[in-house]
Automatic annotation (TrEMBL):
<feature type="transmembrane region" description="Helical">
    <location>
        <begin position="307"/>
        <end position="324"/>
    </location>
</feature>
<protein>
    <submittedName>
        <fullName>Divalent metal cation transporter</fullName>
    </submittedName>
</protein>
<dbReference type="InterPro" id="IPR001046">
    <property type="entry name" value="NRAMP_fam"/>
</dbReference>
<feature type="transmembrane region" description="Helical">
    <location>
        <begin position="143"/>
        <end position="161"/>
    </location>
</feature>
<feature type="transmembrane region" description="Helical">
    <location>
        <begin position="76"/>
        <end position="98"/>
    </location>
</feature>
<dbReference type="GO" id="GO:0005886">
    <property type="term" value="C:plasma membrane"/>
</dbReference>
<dbReference type="GO" id="GO:0005384">
    <property type="term" value="F:manganese ion transmembrane transporter activity"/>
</dbReference>
<feature type="transmembrane region" description="Helical">
    <location>
        <begin position="271"/>
        <end position="295"/>
    </location>
</feature>
<dbReference type="Pfam" id="PF01566">
    <property type="entry name" value="Nramp"/>
</dbReference>
<feature type="transmembrane region" description="Helical">
    <location>
        <begin position="110"/>
        <end position="131"/>
    </location>
</feature>
<feature type="transmembrane region" description="Helical">
    <location>
        <begin position="365"/>
        <end position="388"/>
    </location>
</feature>
<feature type="transmembrane region" description="Helical">
    <location>
        <begin position="181"/>
        <end position="201"/>
    </location>
</feature>
<keyword id="KW-0472">Membrane</keyword>
<dbReference type="GO" id="GO:0015086">
    <property type="term" value="F:cadmium ion transmembrane transporter activity"/>
</dbReference>
<feature type="transmembrane region" description="Helical">
    <location>
        <begin position="222"/>
        <end position="244"/>
    </location>
</feature>
<feature type="transmembrane region" description="Helical">
    <location>
        <begin position="37"/>
        <end position="64"/>
    </location>
</feature>
<feature type="transmembrane region" description="Helical">
    <location>
        <begin position="330"/>
        <end position="353"/>
    </location>
</feature>
Amino acid sequence: MKQKRNWSVLLGAGFLMATSAVGPGFLTQTTVFTESLGASFGFVILMSIVIDIGVQLTIWRVIAVSEKRAQDIANLVLPGLGTFIALLILGGGLAFNIGNVAGAGLGLEALFGLPVQTGAVLAAALSIGIFLVKEAGKAMDRFAQLMGLLMILIIIYVAFTSAPPVGEAIVRTFAPTRVDFLAIVTLVGGTVGGYITFAGGHRLLDAGVKGEAALPQVTSSALAGVSVASIIRVFLFLAALGIVSQGLRIDAANPPASVFQLAAGNLGYKLFGVVMFAAAVTSVIGSAYTSISFIKSFSPYVARFENRFIIGFITISTGVFVTIGKPVTLLILAGALNGFILPITLGIIIIAAHRRNIVGDYRHPRWLTAFGILIVLTMAAISLYLGAQALARL
């Protein structure tokens, strides 16, 4: 019985991370970049998966052995740094969550013809309902698993109906004709940037999965999360590639909806609605939960009334979207923003992994340290390069 409960928690944390990553931005980014890069986008996906594994394993392990949340770890590295990181994550999480709420509205529009703003409000109400349940953690885990499996099944079906050139995709994954640095930063940011990479780690900590003895469980949970997100990304890429390879035009106003409809007609459009809603509402939940987890250790009041703050976070996100709009642009920008945050947060965790006052006698694997440093330097260099390009255009 105990083992069963442990697996429930481990899968719950993995799916929470994965469904937090697989939000509206994930769907939109994958479709937009597949249209612009074609089969070579497979290389970007491969790079993002490799980076995802290195990032998740490092961060989740350090959170587990230190038995502390990321902001508390950062404050031990340098006083005040945790507060800065918490504000950074909170801001990025809010930006992402506005896009998540928008995506839920787009999903319900496709399913039932509701106005996007009305759909967004209904999705927010459902998300809030999760945190009104007495055992909100368990409800969140189960909901994430159900929605994750539903998305996988639908996207695999749509990928098959679009008849993608699988052979070309495999070749270009390892021998791309074009490499887009912005796509790499955006994909990594959308999968393990900002709050997303801490979602599962913080959830395991709250569920009591911690300490060096729990590392095998932590590793299994992290790899499960990366695997789920990667399966969805790959099949969504193949679905979009099938449409692009046929020379069909993807509607810029709602790229993923266009792919589903072109692949499977009206049924495809309705299935898009299901996938977009599932992706968005689970991301709303994951974003709100993780963002608030970054500030609850700073105040006993926030910790005591955590669910109320989560509900407030969802309410604010919904209010901003309803008054501002522009979901597609916001979803792309949010992913890029989180990609810029990643080198900072990962760098801090790597330093913490070698501080005895934080991790005790734990010895972080050398290969993970080297891999993590490489990711930090690469992502920082790409981010600076893209930032310089943006300034040059001003």
